[in-house]
Amino acid sequence: MSAKKNLYMCQFSHLYGDNIYLPYSAGCVWAYARTIPEIAEQYDMKRWIFVRDEPDEIVESLEDPAVITFSTYVWNWEMSAVVAKKVKEKYPDCLTVFGGPQVPGPDRFQFYDFPDAFPYIDIAVHGEGEITFADVLKENLNGQDFKSVPGITVHGHTTEKRERTKDLGIFPSPYLEGLFEDLFDLPYTYHTIFETNRGCPYGCTFCDWGSLTAQKMFNFDLERVFAEIDYFAEKKISHVFSGDANFGILERDIEIAKYLAETKRQSGGYPEKLRVNYAKNSTQRVFDLAKILNDEGLDKGITLSVQSMDKETLKTIKRRNLKFDTYKGFMKMYEQAGIDGYTEVIIGLPGETYESFLAGVDELLDAATHDSLWIYRCTVLPNAPMNEPNYRKLHKIETVRTPIYLNHTTPGSDPVQEYEDAISSTATLPREDLVKCNTMAWAIQAFHGLNLTQVLACYARNAAGMKYSDFYSKFMEWGEANPETLVGSEYLHTKQQIHDVLENGGNWDNVQPDFLSQTWSTEESTFLACSRELDRFYDELERFLDHLEDEGLMTIEPELRADLIRYQKAIVVKWEYDGTQEFELSHSVHTYYHTVLLDEEEPVMRKGRFVISVNDPFKFNGDKEMYATRIVWWGRRGGLTVYLDVEETEIGAPLSATGASDAARAPVST
User: Fold this and answer.
1) At the N or C end, where does the chain have fewer CB atoms within 10 A?
2) Which residues pair with 658 in a beta bridge?
3) Separation CA 26–CA 216 (nearest Å)
């Protein structure tokens, strides 16, 4: 009997500290392929290659490879390509097989100059890979007539389309088959992917989920699903990412959520966290799911992805949102249940204008999404409908190739730079307007969402009728006119960075090395820069309020203005000292502000004597690294940039030397 052919399987992941993903996708295709006797008998799957080591070292470690495979997406395409090219140079007879959602569909090959641009790729697998890959391995043993294999492109020839597999039960689980056992001897903490179904019934043009899966949904049986959950607990997997496009779209998802919660309770806390993509249009079932997961600490909050508030934009991207009143109702339900709700918006969608983007942001902030508005930039994925040539032409979509945005990674540590195609202009959003959208998104998230100025902006909106977008537009204008200020320097840096990305393909990396040597998003970097000099920042904020008064936009009585700024500054979490404090104000700022946040009644600012008590549970006392990690990196999604244990007490009689009596206090706490 001849020697077995050596097979290597690559699925490169990024390290976050010592955390890395198990190579689930590669594991799926091998788990099925090895069930075929001739493959199991004639191939030796040598090892998983999933760490982004130096490409030369990876190739040097291979032993006479006959086949090497690459599971690819936007975060590992370049790494895969570099390794494949070097493999071909050293082992020209090695068969290189690429699969995954980053492989352009057959209708996109010409658009990408594929395969001429990638001569080191022998076979590209389209769509679901298990059966196709097994057929490739068999044909590699039996004459190499790959043109007989459906669902691939081989050296420029695309074969007939392969239909998706309806019975997912024929695919073994790589977890339950024990394919990753050797990896648990390595010095990593593992995250992983978890599928309960495949498919997406929606066709949003910015997303490749529906287009890649043809929208029809098929399920894995619950016995397998539950067994994999048991595996995650047994292996002490800390974070699990759900590969379902719409968790909560099926009734059985309630059973799955309950099993996850029960498993975490019974196992002593594993898996620790589960990240899911909730069903696009929130329902009572999604609320019930979120409550089950949040009650057990599996998932922090729920995300409602609106992407845009503009009707024409939604029509252009083939998306339907909940009616806004319904959306607000669900957000209120989550709030009352103690579940954090998050809202996602995308900048640069075709059909959107600068004006419609601002109107959408204002509408969402008026609906009290103050701590929970996340704004992302639109990138074009190879197989998304948005990347179809006629669609791009119709909407005049221009893109720029930029280094991929990977937040909270160590800059300069990656051996191969990954890239993404970011939208730089559309028919309705010229580049200069897209720059303005990005700077507004930065200001809203850095100063409002991370709560450096939220109290002031809420007061400006409710007492002076000033739109949130106007408040932050003026804040940026003032910063630009005063470049010596923190706001000015951060604004000018951010605007230049945005210009550099959209015009020259620059990167989004921001570093604040005295806090933590990793990359930060633009808004997080600005928050850290301001937290470094809070006294200076709030002195400058006083000057900005003077500016608003000079322009006749908002006048605040001096004593109230002092109260607003003192309260705002007091609630921001401090890194350099213990933030626990008690002080007196002459206005009910705390009650007023939280009435705005609750969005249940008209806020009223009362005069009197009010004691504010702030409890600092962190007490960082100068530990900037821990502060950046817990408050900005881990805590941003939980609204931890401000102290949550704050109490306002109205004093009914003058304070004595030892303080007011308990009977004279009427506390309002959060």
Assistant:
1) N
2) none
3) 23
